[in-house]
User: Fold these one by one.
Assistant:
Number 1:
Amino acid sequence: MMKAGQRVLVRNDWPETRGPCHIRTPHYLRGATGTVLRHLGDFPNPEDLAFGRHAKHLALYHVSFDASSLWGDRKPQAEILVELYESWLEPV
């Protein structure tokens, strides 16, 4: 389980290139590093539910990203807050 304040890397994976799938992780976050803010609970994996498959419960987190690290602009600091399942996160 990830902890609040922990730095994480969003997996740079592209399952849609391997066949039909349902993905809740935005493309622009793959390969990005963020910070876990909080654990939101454990929920059935929507990537399996979309196809009517048995879905194991996964931890869901609020993860914060610095906007300038995602898009390289020099605008005032902005935070992007995204809900991501643990299966997409790796500890840094």
Number 2:
Amino acid sequence: MILTGKSAVVTGSTSGIGLAIAHALAAEGARVMINGFGEEETIATALAELTRASGAEALHDPADMARPDEIAAMIQRAHHAWGGPDILVNNAGIQFVSPIADFPAEKWDAILAINLSSAFHAMRAAVPHMRARGWGRIVSTASAHSLVASPNKSAYVAAKHGLVGLTKTVALETAAEAITVNCVSPGYVWTPLVEQQIPATMAARGLTREQVIDDVLLAAQPTKQFVTSEQVAALVLFLCGDAASAVTGANLSVDGGWTAA
């Protein structure tokens, strides 16, 4: 239990990759605060499972990642409950697919707010607590789209590229303080976020559902397989451990070979 005594906040974690990350951290003893929207019963079940895994308290905070005041309050709530937080995982994200000429300005603003600015606000609130404790781990879920682009995803690609720049900057600012700051960049993971992209991509490109999966999504990944949430979570867990104390300012790909070419 390498994270016993540590506390973690994982944004966008009531399902998908975020929930898998929360489970991985709890399995190593961390107290975990999950964040996001969802049915009350589903969230209660997730909290009970996290508590069983860690043997420690788990909490949920419904902070809207588009609202800086709610993000700051979430970090402060974790601090009051447990101290820290020792670990911050910026995982919240949304997507919208459209050619630039038809891309709604409000969708651009929402994607930049949730996929990029929320990480800034959470880091800004968490870093002082990590400095006070002399230890911290910040990991942000970027994307293969932090390294390469795809058509019709201008806001998402811009946000993920920006997230890498933010990560590198904060890593340099905290490098001498036993705080590491890194990104993980998954390829296509079968999550609700990816599944929701399929109809818009079908419409934008005139393809069937099967063609979108085979010829658009998995075409990018030489393995021809979706990455799993558990594979992403395992990499995040490694970055949170002492074995990764020399890894900071990095953007680590877990993308089935997508960005190897």
Number 3:
Amino acid sequence: MSSMNNFALDAAIKEAWRYQFLTYPNPAVGAAVIVKNRLFVSAHKKAGEPHAEVNALWEAYKAFFDAPPLTISHEIHEFLIKNHNGFFRESNVFVTLEPCSHVGKTPSCANLLKHLKPKSVTIGWLDPISEHSGGVEMLKSAGIEVNVLNDKRCYDLIEPFIKWTNDKFIFFKLAQSFNGAITGGYISSESSLKWVHQIRDKIELLVIGGNTVRIDRPTLDARKVNGKSPDVLIYSKEKNFDKTIPLFSIPKRRVFIEDNLEKINDYKFIMIEGGERLYKKLKNFVDWKVFIVTPKIFDRINYKSEDEFEILHVERRDDLIVFGRSND
């Protein structure tokens, strides 16, 4: 690919990571469109909302033409099909995952591209769900040049989706200072705390250690985003807890106190939050690890753990958010 095309795919991948976990039960997907020598980048942001390529195409169209303020997927599809007037004929589209051929909560993206007829569509990874695949054939049948890259970075993006679709996906979230301190109240920035609440709104089960519950007396809800609160599994040998701890008072939530992890088999999307002891016990049990690293150095004891993992992505916000996979 040319340097511009490489830049476009890189931008699509980076944008998709901004919404990792937040699209559950859908995968994280990014897209880019090069049209009239301009680059437009977007992502799938929430299940039921427009897919990544639709958002990118819509941003491109609105930059050149007056358009109504549409946000519903099928309305955008219908408007573009009726009003594109060949605008995308010389465009190049990049998407981290094969455009869907099926009709679900949203219309088929491959069908939309078939009508818009861009010059080319570059795909980072083929859809792993057989009933969703077929987009490549649909595009080729419309005379569109299709390039499938099998880019590992695009697989990494959808690994959680593959796992929770087929069984379950578990990740460990740990907030720390630059020098590895994890105790002493809130460590992360306000924006990171809000991001964690966004994730809690999506997960089905949150696992936490008994000591953390007793010491921190947490709520473990998603109040910063007015979201739903996940069920909670307190992993503890000691079953007696002060029931005035806020997490026990959240409506429509189930709280389990167990000395084993069998309960996770009833859920598909699971986050583990905890301190050093829980991390050491469960670090080899999880699919991914997510570290929120705040750019501060605290005069506190830092946690100690021998660990190696593959860094999948580093998201730079007010804090660094490091996504990693175990090296085992």
